[in-house]
Amino acid sequence: MAQQIFAYINHNDGAADDTALEFVTAAKKITSDGAVTAIVTGSGANLDTVCNELAASYNEVWKIDSDALAYPNAEVVRKALINILPGDSIVLFAHNTFGMDIAPGLSVKTDSAFISDVVDIEGVDGPNLKVVRQEFGGQVSTHVTADISSGAVINVRPGSFQPDESKAAGGQVADKSGEAGDLAARRRYIEVVEAEVGDVDITKSDVLVSIGRGIEEEDNIEIAEELAEAMGAVVSCSRPIVDSKWLEKSRQVGTSGQTVKPKVYMAMGISGSFQHMGGLKGSPFIVAVNKNIKAPIFQFADVGVVADILEFMPELTEKINEIK
Amino acid sequence: MDSVLISPAKASFIGIPTVIFSVVIPIVGIAVFTYIIAKRLAPLVRAAPDNRFDRINERIVNVIKLWLGQYKQPRYMMAGTLHILIFAGFIILSVRSLSLVFLGISEDFMLPGLGGIAGQIYGVFKDFAGTFVLVACVIAAVRRGIFKPERYAVPKKYGHDHTGEAVFVLGLISTLMVCDMLFEGTQAAAQIQEGMHTELIIPGTGVWFTVNMFLAKATPLEKLQNIHILAYFMHELTFFFFLCFLPLGKHFHVITSIFNVFFMKLDKGTVKPVKWGVEDDKLDELESFGVKKFEDFTWKHMLDFYTCADCGRCSDNCPANACGRPLSPRFISIKARDYLFKHYPLQGPMTNGSPLIGDIFTEDEIWSCTTCGACEEECPVMNEYIDKIVDLRRGMVDEGTVPQSLQKPLSALEKRGNPYGKMEKKRADWAKDKEFSEICNVKIIGGKETADTLYFVDSITSFDDRIQEIGKATARVLTSAGIDFGILGPAEKDSGHEIRRFGEEMLFQDIKEQNTEAILSSGVKNIVTADPHTFNALTKDYKDLPPVEHMCQTMAKLIGSGKIKLRAVEDKNKIYTYHDPCYLGRHNGIYDIPRNVIDSISGIRRVEMGLRCRDRSFCCGGGGLMLFYEPIEEKRMGQIRVEMAKKAGANVVVTACPFCLVNIEDAIKTSGLEGKMEVIDLVELIDRHMI
Amino acid sequence: MDILVCVKRVPDTAENEIEVNSSGSDIERDDLVYSVNEWDNYAVEEAIQIRDNSGGAVTVVTVGDEESEEVLRREMAMGADNGILCSDEAFEGSDGKGIATILKSVVEKGNYDLILTGAQADDGAGEVGGMLAAMLDMPYASLVNSIEIVNDKMIKVGREIEGGNQEMNEIDLPCVLSIQTGINEPRYVGIRGIRKVASVEIPVLGVSDLGLSAEAVGKSGAKVTRQDYFVPDLGEGAEILEGSTEEIIEKLIEMLKSKGGIK
Fold first, then answer.
1. Closest CB to C15 among B399, B407, B416
2. I need a surface site. Which of A85, A123, A209, B657 has the fewest CB within 10 A?
3. CATH 3.40.50.620 fits C2-221, yes or no
C-alpha cells in the first residue's frame, strides 16, 4: 500500500527511549516490508546523536530541529507533524504520557483513525488494521479493527513488541526542519518539577516488588530494594511492614492501603491475605515466593516458588543483573 | 440561748448595722446567679430538641443510684472516695448553708423541723461533715497540685493547664469550712470562757480544734467577737461568690449534675435519631443532617458540655486516646464548653452559627472514635459521647467531607451490600466450600427453603477468608445441636451497624429496609448471630424483628440443656483469657454468659486481664467501616490489648466478635508474638471441643 | 468561569469481576454495578472547586442511554449546576471520534471557558478529550494534576509525566484538559444528596437537537470498531516452578521479560 509508516521517537539526553526499536517490529506487522520512517524532534547536538543512532534501524530518519521543540511539548510537536506528514500516513507513538497527549488530537487534524494502547497487531485486511487491546485494567482483551485507508495514528504499549536490534535498515537522516511551519502554540512549556526523593507512588509503577513479613527484619528490606532496582521496579509492601514502621504508609498495598494495578507483582514473603489482595486490581502477572506452600498467595499467583525470600531474592537479583 | 457574742444580725461595723450586708449580699448574689444561669440557658433554648421526659420512674432511680449514690465514683478509688466525701458533705451542709444566710438577719433563726434535738443531731453531722470535707479538700489539693495524676494533664494543643482552677475551687470550699468553724468556734469559745452553756462539740472535729485553739490562746472576747463577725461575712461572701462562680467552669456540675443524670440516655447501644420528633420516613424533608454548627446539638448535649467535671476518666479509658489518635473525649466536652462560654458570653452579643469542624474539632478527631463506649461507661455525671460523634459525622457526610479511605467501602455498601465490593451472589459461597458442605449443609432461606432460625452471617463472616471459619464453626455447632437454621445468602445485606455510626444515615435506612423485608418475608421465628455488631444492630437499630440472640447466649442454653456435649480442654497447658467485645459487653451488658460458656469446658484455665475486663474492657480497634479508616496513631489498639493479655499470663485470647478476632490476630503478628499467642472465637472454641 | 465536564457511566471496576460473556461479544453485564468513571469524578470535583473560588457554573454532560442519567444526577448531587444528556439511537456504536463530535456540538451550543474530561476510562482509550480539543481548535493538556487560574485568559496546569515528575505549562483559555486521578479529594456524595436532586430537570439532546448528521456518529460514522472480547490463555492457579534454584530463576526471568517485568 501507498501509505507511509512513521514512528515518533521519544528521547532524552541524547539517548532514544527503549521503545524506539519496538516500532520497527510493530511496523513489520502492518506491512510486509515493514518500511518505517523515524521522526525525531528536538534541538541541538543531542538531537543529532539520536538521529544518527537510529539511522541504522530505520529506513529513513526525519529530523526536525527547532528551539520551539527543545522540550517535547505535544501541542507544538503536533503542529510540526501536521505540516510534515504526508496524507494518509500511519503514525506510531509509544503509549506514554506524551503519546496520550499528542495522538488523539493529531488523528482529528489528519482525519485518520486513532487506536490507543495497542498490545498486539494482527495484520491488515482490506482497508482495516486488526489489533489487540485490553480493557478493565487488563482483565479482558479485545480485537479491534480500524479503517486505516485514510491514515492512522496508533499508540503502541511499551514492551508489547520486541525491540528490533538488528540494525538492518540503514537509512539516512533527512533534515525536515524547514517544513515544520509555524510552531507558536497556545500551550507553553514552563518547566519540569521533579518528584521528591522518597516520594514514591507505588500506584504508578508497572512492576512492584512487594514484601511481607517474610522479610523478617527491617535490615533485609535492602534485598528487596536491590531486586526492585534490577527490575526497574518499586518496592511496595503489605500492612505488617508499615505497622512495624519499616516503610511508609504510602508503600502499602491493601484495602486500607493503596490500590495498585501493576503489570507484574512480585509477592515476596506475603501470605496473600484477603485485605492485602484487595488492593491489587487488574490482572497483573503475580509471582509469589513464600516458604509456606499453603500460603493463600499461591491461589492468587500465576507462578509460585516455594523458597525463603531472603535466599531467593539475592540470587534472582544477581541473575537479572548478569543478563542486563 | 443567751449568746455572749453579738450575732451578725445585731452587730455593727463603723456605725453600719451589719444586717444590711446580710441582706444585700444574698440578694446581689442570687440576682447575679440568676442572671448567669439565664445566660447559660440561652443556647439551650436555640438547641435541637431532645426527648428526655419519658420513663420518669427509671430516671428517678438513676438519680438515686448514680447521683445520690455516687455509684460510679469508686471506679477510681482514691479520687472517688475524696469526691464522695465532699459530695456527702455538700448535701449535709446545704442545710447549714441555708440557715447561715438567715442567721445573719435573725439571730435565733432555726429552719422548720430543726429545733431542739433534731437540730442538735444535725449539728453533730454538720460538724463531722465540715471536718471531713476540709480534710478531703486538703488531700485533694495536694494530690492535684503536687502529685498531679496524669489524667488531669492538659496536652499543649488544648491550652493551659486546669490545675489552677481545681485548686482554687478546693480553696473556696476549704474557706467555707474554715469560716463556719471559726464562726461556731468563736461562739463556743466565748460561751465557755464565760462559763455558759454551749452546743455539743465533738472532739476531733474542726470546730473542736478551733475552740481549743482559742481557749489555749485565751483569746480576748473582743477578738472573738471580731473574728465571729468577720468569719460570718467571709463565709457569706465566699458562699455567694462560689455560687456565682460555679457556672463559670467545671464546677457547674455541682448544680447541673442532678439534671444531667435525670436526663441521661436510657438505652445503651442505640443511636439517637437524626432529629428527635422527625420520623424515618420524613428525613428527606430536613434541610440539614447532623451537627455542623453548635446550635445543631440538642439541649441535653449542651447540658453535657456544661456538666463535664473535667475529671479525665473518659479519656483515661479511651482506646483511641491510648494509641495516640487525636481524640480525647474529655476535650470534646471541654472545648465545646469553652465554645459555649465564648460565643454565649455573660456580657456582650451572642456570636454563633459557625462550623465546628475546622474550628474546635478536626475531622480526624471525630473519625477516630470506634464507638466502644468506654468513655460513657466511666463518666460519673453520665455524659454521652457516641451520639455526639455520630451527629458530627452526619454533618460531615452531609457536607461530603468523608475521608477517601471510607468512600470506597461506603460506595461498595451502596452498590453491593458489603464494604468489600464483592458480588452479592457470592455472599453464601463460604457455605458452598466443598469439604465443608459435605459434612454440613447450610440452607439458603427464601424461595423454597424455610427454617425456624435465621443465622444472620453479616459481611465480614461472609467474605473474609479467616472469618469464614467462624461462619463454618457456627453452622457446625447449630447443626450439631439439631437447630433448624438457614441463612439469607445473597438476599442478606450488611447489617449497616457501622454505616449508621459513621453518619451515613440514609444509606443505613435503605439497607435496614432491605434486610428487614428479607427477614420478615423469610418467616423465621428467631435470629442468631456470632457478630456482636450485627446483634446490636438487629436489637437496637432495627424494629419489629423476631427475637435475636448472640451465639454465646445460644451456646450457653444448648450446653446447659445438654444438646451440646463438650470434652475436656484439648491442651491443659494453655492459659485462656476472654476479651469482652464492646458490643457484647458494654453496650449489651453480656459479660458472664460467654465466660460460663468457656468455663464449661472442663479443665480449662482462664484468667482475667486485670481490671481491663468486663465493662472496662479495652477496645480491639473497632469493627465494620473502622477497618478501612486510616487513623493517625502511634500504636494499634490491638497491640495494646495483646500486651494486656500477655501481662495476664495468657497465651490464648478468646473473643466473641469477628472484628476483635481480626484486630487481635493482626496485633499478635505485628507484636512478634506469632507462635506464642493465639486468638480464637468462642464459637470456634466450642466447635473444637464438641463431642 | 463556566465549565463543561464530560462524564461517562462505566462498570465499577472496584466492585465488579469483569468476565467475557459466553459468546465473546461483550463482557458479562448481568451482575455489574455502574458508576461515574473515577477520572471524570475527579474532574467534576475540580470544576466545582474552581467554580466555588471564581464563580460561574459547572455543567456535566454525558453521551449514553437513559441509565446514564443517574451519573449526571450524582455529579449534580456533588455540586454541578446543570446536566445534559445526549441520547439517541443514532449515537450507539460511536467510536471515540463520534463521541467527540457529539460533544463538540454541545460545546458549541454553550459558552464555556474550560472543558474537562477524565484522563481515561477503564473501558475507553483516553482519546475523547484530545479529539474534542482538536475539533474545537482549542489548546489541550492531558493527565492534568494541578490547575491554577491565572486570569480569565490563561491558566497554569501541571501534567503528570513519567517518574512521578510534573510538567508545568501555561495554557490559554478556552481550553480542554483531561484530568488525572489524585488532583484533589472528591467529596462524598451520600444517598441523601442524590435524593435531593432526584427531580431536577435534565434536558435530553438527540441527533437533530445537536445539528448532527447520523452518518458522522454512531456505528456508521465509526472508523474504529471493537470486534469481540476474549481472555488470552493464562493457565490455572499458580504454576509452582520446580527444579534447582538456578533453573527456577532462569524460567522466572523468561516469564518476567515477556510480561514486561524486567526493564
1. B416
2. A123
3. yes
